[in-house]
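Sample pair:
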Amino acid sequence: MAVLWAVVFLLGAPSAGAQGGCSSCEDISNPYGASLYRVCVPVPPCAPNGGLVVFAHGYVAPNEPLQIPDYKIDGTTLPALVNQLGFVYATSSFPVNGLAIQEGIDDLVNLTSLVMGSYPLTGPVYLAGASEGGAITALAMERHSDVFSGGLALCGPVGNFQKQINHYGDFRVVFDYFFPGVLPHTAIDPDPTGDVRSGWDVPRGYADQIGLALLANPAATQQLLRVMRVQVDPADPVTSIGEAVIRNLWYNVFATYDAQDKLGGQPFGNRWRFYTGSSNDFLLNLKVKRYRADYLARLEIAANYETSGQLHAPVVTMHTTGDPIVPYWHELFYRWKTCRSGSWAMHTNLPVFKYGHCEFSAEEAVTAFSVLAYKVAAQGP
């Protein structure tokens, strides 16, 4: 443990005001496909240490253009944070948006090969990712420990991807039960004409209508929260309720068609699900809409999107316990998988006891990375 805290001290969290005074970034050509690549290297006064951090970004709506992700932690850009620690930083737009887990894994392996062949790197290669990128990180570490020395999976659906798909579908059908007519169409066909997506964020659009409906019927809102076990920020319950409900429904509206196309069918099914937490569970389960999942879509998820927990290199997962979008129970599932596979010693979970999805401070992120660096170093000389 003393060695761990020595690593934390040596890496040190940078100040929140640092914006990248020792970071030099360039977009590089991609010989492998359509995705955009960017590499940032540490320059004086920061000293390179020979290591590389490859970053996997989170979910981007399928209708958005491909672009390099731009993340900040406590006001510091992610490349600046990594470069201040002495590491080269590399990231990709991925060749597609939407559900991009399989494409993202292959793309980051190609990016790593390209960077390793172009820069004088001698240290470990770390893979880090947030949200959907967290799932990419966990799966890539299970499949490509020959490429990556260690992985840091942040707030990702690493435990059970099918249950995450079901979470968004369940959220929609339960919402429709308590608030009929607020959103048109159905959970598995939420926007056949594109009108809902185009009218989502406009003034008095669908997002606003959802918020107004929640305020107009607080009793139904509380039942929705109980049935779906939605986490709420105790410091700001009104705002957090609206944001959590709207964001969960956003995934149903924006992600459904893309996921169905890439999975080869409709993956959500609730024929035998029994919902609890309402004031009348019998009536809820009698009237809530039911759907049957396509068998081939379920098979595709089981074959290519579910983690196994079989690790050959260290993986650190970090997750806020009050995550309203990707629930914390993913960490419990993943821990069970690593124990079942005999890889428990390769996995470390760091719970962050606060509300929010991927709401980490720079100190928390650097500490998690320090734990990973320690575990990787402990395996070698």
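Residues 237-263 form the longest helix (27 residues).
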